[in-house]
Amino acid sequence: MLGYVTLGTNNLAKSAEFFDKLFTPLGAKRLLDLPRGVFWGTGLDKPFLGVMKPIDGQPAGCGNGAMVALATPNREKVDEIHKLALELGCTCEGAPGERMPGFYAAYFRTPEGHKMNAFKMG
Q: What is the pTM of this model?
């Protein structure tokens, strides 16, 4: 159902550098490198994520209640992504752990304030 998700950025170069590092352990790479945005994923035929400068020229902001969840192959990868996110300047929004039976997740906010998580179902 999902095609892609975009997050606003006020500093494209800095955001691109952050996501290059965050997505490497997940096997994602840059798919599109555009003047106003950069997109990462494992293929254009699969869901992917990008950061973009807003088209209206206004400052980018974070959506209240919005969150992007990154699927991982196992619980160890959740732990790894969360640790890496914190090393890259993110703030912890919830340490790795089981939130309900079969749902293991860790939450963080990017340096620009976007809420994200890494999770494993099952």
A: 0.93
